[in-house]
Amino acid sequence: MSTECWHEVADAWRAARAVIEPRVNDMLAGRRYGDGVAKWVYISMISPSGMGLPERNRMDRKARELEFRLLVPYDLFATSDAIGAQRILVASLRRSLGLAANKRIPDFAIADLRRDFDALATAHDWLLAAPCGPVVVEIRGWRNGLQKIKATKLLVSEGGMTLRAAKDATDHVLTGGTVRVPALTMDDAVRLRDVLIAIGLEVHIESTPHVA
């Protein structure tokens, strides 16, 4: 884990990393997920302006190296307590796992890695609980031609859900229910909304979610 962050949140980032990184390393010790990825680079960008740089999400297949430079919402991170900061970084790490899953890398058991990481996050109470994100994507219905399997996959890769939760969410919408998915930033919410609308779901964004 590395960062490019504003000096005002540097101490909070270091404190969160000191908790998360050794536990992730302990989880990875002795486990193998295949030879498809030799190196995973994760850089969080935390500043009021996002450092003015675009996110990066790429795979160097020759070097077998994944690189993620992902924006983390500055205001939310700066005002969070210690466990909140940890949850925000873990949510960003989980997003990198979803992006990696979309790359379909040969000889890389990404599903197993995501399962193990989610188990670790659950054990340490690091998962953001819906609907408590700063922005909420609300799935309110569906249209004829809905691609159910693709909807489930998108809720996993882009919405950060487990496969079981994503299947249940899709079924809930199909039977007339509403599903609320937290997003860390408005850009994340818009991206998720657009891909879900494209495959046949009725979606709305709430920028000031109700917290029960």
What descriptors fit this protein?
single chain; 212 residues; alpha/beta; 4-stranded mixed β-sheet; 7 strands; 20% strand
Characterization of the model:
This protein has 212 residues and is of the alpha/beta class. Helices cover 44% and strands 20% of the residues. The protein has a four-stranded mixed sheet with strand order 1-2-4-3, with helices on one face. Strands 6-5-7 form a three-stranded antiparallel sheet, with helices on one face. The longest helix is centred in the middle third of the chain and has 20 residues, at 82-101. 33% of the residues are buried.
What would you call the structural class? alpha/beta
The count of strands amounts to 7
Order of helices and strands: EHEEEHHHEHHEHE
Largest sheet at a glance? 4 strands, mixed
Strand order within the widest sheet? Answer: 1-2-4-3
Evaluate the radius of gyration.
Answer: 17 Å
Number of helices: 7
List low-pLDDT spans.
Answer: 208-212
Residue-averaged pLDDT, rounded?
Answer: 86
Overall outline: globular
Strand content: 15-25%
- The N- to C-terminal Cα distance equals 33 Å
Task: Assign a percent range to the helix content.
Answer: 40-55%
